[in-house]
Amino acid sequence: MSDNAALVALLTALADDELILGHRHSEWTGHAPHIEEDVAFSSIAQDEIGHAGAYYSLIAKLTDQATDQIALGREPSDYRNAVLCEQPNGNWAFTLARHWLYDHADDIRLAALESSSHEELSAIATKLRREERYHLLHADSWVQRISSGPVEGRARLIDAMTEAFTDAMGLFEPIELEEAAVKEGWLPVPSAEMKARFVERTTTALDDLGLPTEVRAIDDRAAEFVASSSGDLIENAAAGEGPSPLPIAHGLGGRKGRHSPDFEILWTEMTSTYQENPGATW
Asked: CA-to-CA distance for 78 and 228, rounded, in angstroms?
């Protein structure tokens, strides 16, 4: 194992999340509910892919690989994005729920990485967090708007948030070689601690918005607790009963290269130009 293997693993997970979610966001171009959101989601998608590029560029410096090859030349099982990022957009409510959950998770993650012992990663995190602030404002404004709107819209958002929240735990599935990354200070806050911050922040926010969403947080083994919109964490009796036979069903597996069937379809479309012409730039 190279000295930088844990750092590369961390950067790969960060980059793959951004690239894959950016690709999903881009699919709303021409299909969003109105023209303003067509522009907004196209812009957010472009930002996310650009942020992925910043991480991939750092990996390229560490590994002497081409950035394009890292981003688009790998097999599907080599990607380390969270499963939530690859899920089809579905309806507008699910897209907004995922957008809101991901950007709160990413804000927590970037805040931690600003203290990374790796100076370049710390600088990237600081820059990206400033840019991601606008994504967070966009997501918050939509969720606030729907939470105070007609009952039908609220009901759809509650259903979507419930569906997406459990899978959002996969954003904090431990990365490969995480123990080494934490020891070196490259990842200043372990994934489990960031996950706890995320659950506290988001369940409190949902409670404040009056959205009675019940969510189930999952760890690598089984259901760890049930978090209600009041922020109370209730121990789940099923916890500790052993590994789930279908970890992807709980948004887990992505950090180990296990993905949903939808990912290969996305990967084929996303990498088609590069696969046909490896010399192309993205």
From this structure: 35
